[in-house]
Design a protein that fits this description.
It is built from one helix and no strands. It is an all-alpha fold. The chain has one domain (1-44). The radius of gyration is 15 Å and the shape is globular.
Length: 56
């Protein structure tokens, strides 16, 4: 059995929410192209710190 991985494109730094900056707006095509390159361009977004809730 081949190993199974799950990639969430929305968590990639190349994803704007509307399209992939690397492979374009068609999600199916973008995933296929990214997979062909073994997801080597997948860069997980860094978590932004929450703003201070006590700011006066």
């Amino acid at each position: 059995m081949k190993p199974y991985i799950e990639i969430d494109c929305r968590r990639c730094g190349n994803c704007t929410g509307d399209e992939c900056l690397k492979y374009g707006a068609d999600a199916d095509v973008a995933v296929a192209l990214c997979a062909q390159e073994a997801f080597s361009n997948y860069v997980e977004k860094q978590h932004e710190e929450a703003p201070d809730s006590i700011s006066n």
